[in-house]
From TrEMBL:
This is Adenine deaminase. PANTHER family: ADENINE DEAMINASE. The gene is add. Keywords: Hydrolase, Metal-binding, Nucleotide metabolism, Zinc. The lineage of its organism: Bacteria, Pseudomonadati, Thermodesulfobacteriota, Desulfuromonadia, Geobacterales. It is an enzyme of class 3 (hydrolase). Pfam families: A_deaminase. Gene3D superfamilies: Metal-dependent hydrolases. GO terms for molecular function: adenine deaminase activity; zinc ion binding.
Length: 326
């Protein structure tokens, strides 16, 4: 179909991608072997069978388990370069990657090991694949504010390798206010703030992310439609939403893709972008996310073009770089 080849060939930006969520089962097995780690799965099919989620937490349990095979700098490089190769095939020109340092430092892996491996892959992606990228350090919201602050301090020697800070993991019961101080400190350093809000959590978490964390984008944010005043604010201030369609269906935020509210979000004149979140776990990379919403919601060429352009507009690229890519 013409719209399918249009989607495949469209230059894209990706703004909501957890690099640990790109760990494919094949690489998980290879790294487990290399690092002599015993996996609780006997085969690739057993791994794939375990990827049946009922909500965000049921996914996170498997996601934190999967990342335990990442030990050496080389492992983080292998993980990220595999993503960049995949991104290149999807016509991605720019990406802003999340990483979860606490998922590694809590297991005794030095911060330096994590960021050095990722950085090496970023350099290679720029040189060899023509993909620009930035790193967004995410704080795990189920851990304490003190742990987040300690993580930021540990990261500051690598300030120049970081684009921003984010907030992810279990949303319910962990409102943005818990991280007000660490975001304040990060903003003082010039790090650009974003946060997951309104995926499973209520609209009040989106308000808090805006007012207390002063975020420049909302990750997910799909529950904003429950609050008319919030929608008006997001539209007026042009706050981008990084929406992840396949993720939302896999984690049962919506029962089916046909029930996804992306089209309503567009109708409310919100700056909606399409992203893959954790593609190795949710069954598709960026192009697949575009194809899935297009099919289920019957999006036309204009809407698809709008979504892809929004990805570049909502990015943290400079105005000149945006102009060159748009
Ligand atoms: N939500 C919250 N935390 C996460 C996600 C997500 O979609 N992916 C990885 N960590
Ligand atoms: Zn996410």
């Amino acid at each position: 179909r013409p719209i399918e080849s249009f989607i495949r060939n469209l230059p894209k930006a990706e703004l909501h991608l957890h690099i640990e969520g790109t760990l494919e089962p094949e690489l998980m097995f290879r790294l487990a072997e290399r690092n002599r780690i015993t996996l609780p799965f006997a085969s690739l099919d057993e791994v794939r069978a375990a990827y049946q989620f009922s909500d965000l937490q049921s996914f996170l349990d498997i996601y934190y388990q999967g990342m335990q095979v990442l030990i050496e700098e080389e492992d983080f490089y292998d993980l990220a370069i595999a993503y960049f190769e995949r991104a290149h095939a999807d016509q991605i020109r720019h990406c802003e990657l999340f990483f979860d340092p606490q998922g590694h430092t809590e297991r005794g892996i030095p911060f330096k090991t994590v960021i050095s491996g990722l950085r090496r892959a970023q350099d290679e992606a720029r040189e060899r694949l023509g993909i620009s990228s930035g790193l967004i350090l995410c704080f795990l919201r189920h851990l304490s504010a003190e742990s987040a602050l300690a993580t930021l301090e540990e990261a500051l020697p690598y300030r120049e390798w970081l684009l921003g800070v984010g907030l992810d993991s279990s949303e319910s019961g962990h409102p943005p206010v818990k991280f007000e101080a660490v975001f304040e400190r990060a903003r003082q350093e010039g790090l650009l703030p974003v946060a997951h809000a309104g995926e499973e959590g209520p609209p009040s978490y989106i308000w808090e992310a805006l007012d207390l964390l002063k975020v420049l984008r909302i990750d997910h944010g799909v529950r904003c439609l429950e609050d008319e005043r919030l929608v008006a604010r997001l539209a007026a201030e042009k706050v981008p939403l990084t929406v992840c369609p396949l993720s939302n269906v896999k984690l049962r935020v919506f029962d089916t893709m046909a029930r996804h509210n992306l089209k309503e979000l567009l109708r409310c004149e919100l700056c909606v972008t399409v992203n893959s979140d954790d593609p190795a776990y949710f069954g598709g990379y960026l192009t697949e996310n575009f194809l899935a919403v297009q099919r289920a919601l019957g999006l036309g060429f204009t809407e698809i073009r709008q979504l892809a352009d929004n990805g570049f507009r909502a990015s943290f690229l400079g105005e000149r770089e945006k102009g060159e890519l748009l």
